[in-house]
Amino acid sequence: MNAWTLRWRAWVIAVAGLAASQSWAAVDVYNQAPSAALADTSAVFNNPSDPGFNWAIDSDMEAWAYFQVPADVQFNRISWYGSDADGSFAVDLFPATCFSCGANWAQTSGGFATNLLPTSLYGPQQVHKTALAGGLFEYDIDLPSKVTLSGSQPTYGLTVVNNYTAKPFSWAGSGQGSGFHLHYIVGQAMFLKAPGNLAFTLTDTTAVSPVPEADGMQLSLLGLTPIWGARRPRGR
Prior knowledge:
mainly beta, 15 strands, globular
């Protein structure tokens, strides 16, 4: 095997290594980052004798974040932030023509009629929970396929609400967003506009990051000559 062939093989291995190490990256396509303050409660008590989202007590409450995306985005992970909570979560994402349009509280099984997600109800084994600084927790779910949101859609609504036994979920606030969210309280029996944003993130975990071209300096560090600078010896 001649020297030119050895250099060629080494160059291919080096470039393949660079590509493998920098091909994929998780990208937050929309982010209302959490602040330290809790903005609103979104929780329904789970009565052991009558389980599910049954809205049986006056303090049962659900909150919705309304938002717009500046351009078309795709994502396969939803994260939300707030207090330490237990139980299952119902998660609904839906298109709306205006703020507060389309809100529909979680039904007994956690289902929604307008959901863009493949399912509404996520049990503790499906919701990943991570403790953050300042007493906040991050919750996230991974979807089986990507969901697309359109930049031409006037508004989207997102709600997460837990069916708790001991720890109701309180949603963290955010400095990003429209400045308002929506909530429904059984004891008041009405949808109300509330000040403040709710914290959540939409992430594409399979985004492809640019693969840098292996330049002369990178290859020289490997003891190689860039292929465009090497000449194959002529046959004798």
